[in-house]
Design goal:
Layout: E1 18-23, E2 29-33, E3 40-41, E4 48-50, E5 62-67
Antiparallel strand pairs: 1-2, 1-5, 3-4
The structure holds zinc ion.
């Protein structure tokens, strides 16, 4: 049985609405808006994870892990 060929769609959708990051202070992994309009703090230790930068967040206190979409 021949395998059905899947056509690759061109990427029209912008990736990265949500991003998973790790807090540099406590190691907490948290899902944040990739393009936030307010500073984001860690839910566990309260450290600042990211600052809004008019586009993609500036990860001031966290390490980027992956996009969720
Ligand atoms: Zn933390």
């Amino acid at each position: 049985m021949p395998e059905e060929q899947t056509q690759e769609k061109p990427e029209t959708r912008e990736r990265g609405t949500f991003a998973e990051v790790e807090c540099e202070d406590c190691g907490n992994e948290q899902v944040i808006f990739a393009r936030p309009s307010n500073p984001i703090t860690c839910e566990v230790c309260g450290s600042e994870l990211a600052q809004p930068r008019g586009g993609l967040a500036d990860l001031t206190g966290s390490t980027f892990i992956d996009y969720l979409d």
